[in-house]
């Protein structure tokens, strides 16, 4: 079906013109953290915002006020979770995954790699993307809580204090 009726298109246009600025305002007020990729909760909020926006735009069963309230509620809950994580550090164990060492001093940590499901080829790719040609030149590769791989070369390792909160099963 190409088009049910022009009323549906008009509704979509009006709702989109009204809800999009509302979402932008909500996101600006909530701060940069709302759309970051810091942890699973941030990712879930981002996906939920997209899904909610689509529902607001396409469903006649959801009023504009209900939709904007739903968006504000999602952002508000994410904000509260972030505040909880900052103000009560024990909550971070529930809310965030812990970074994990996958390579240390040029040696791959196969047990850690299996546990977090990262292949050697992914580590080599991350090293290449940082301009590292030899894994022996790498002091540490860390799988961060946002899913990215951090590469620390030997000449940039310093005292290693940046690894203080990183899980390292073979230490």
UniProtKB/TrEMBL annotation:
GO terms for cellular component: plasma membrane. It is found in: Cell membrane. It comes from the Bacteria. Its main location: membrane. Keywords: Cell membrane, Membrane, Transmembrane, Transmembrane helix. This is DUF421 domain-containing protein. Residues 92-156 form the YetF C-terminal domain. The lineage of its organism: Bacteria, Bacillati, Actinomycetota, Actinomycetes, Micromonosporales. InterPro entries: DUF421 (IPR007353), UPF0702_alpha/beta_dom_sf (IPR023090), YetF_N (IPR048454). PANTHER family: UPF0702 TRANSMEMBRANE PROTEIN YCAP.
């Amino acid at each position: 079906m190409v088009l049910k009726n022009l009323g549906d298109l008009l509704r979509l246009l009006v709702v989109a013109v009204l809800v999009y600025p509302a979402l932008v305002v909500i996101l600006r007020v909530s701060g940069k953290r709302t759309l970051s990729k810091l942890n699973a909760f941030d990712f879930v909020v981002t996906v939920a915002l997209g899904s909610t926006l689509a529902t607001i735009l396409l469903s006649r069963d959801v009023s504009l006020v209900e939709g904007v309230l739903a968006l504000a509620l999602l952002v508000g809950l994410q904000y509260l979770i972030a505040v909880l994580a900052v103000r009560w550090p024990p909550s971070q164990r529930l809310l965030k995954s812990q970074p994990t060492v996958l390579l240390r001093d040029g040696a791959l940590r196969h047990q850690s790699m299996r546990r977090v499901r990262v292949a050697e080829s992914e580590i080599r790719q991350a090293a290449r993307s940082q301009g590292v040609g030899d894994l022996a030149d790498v002091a540490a590769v860390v799988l961060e809580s946002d899913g990215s791989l951090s590469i620390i070369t030997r000449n940039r390792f310093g005292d290693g204090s940046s690894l203080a909160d990183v899980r390292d099963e073979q230490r």
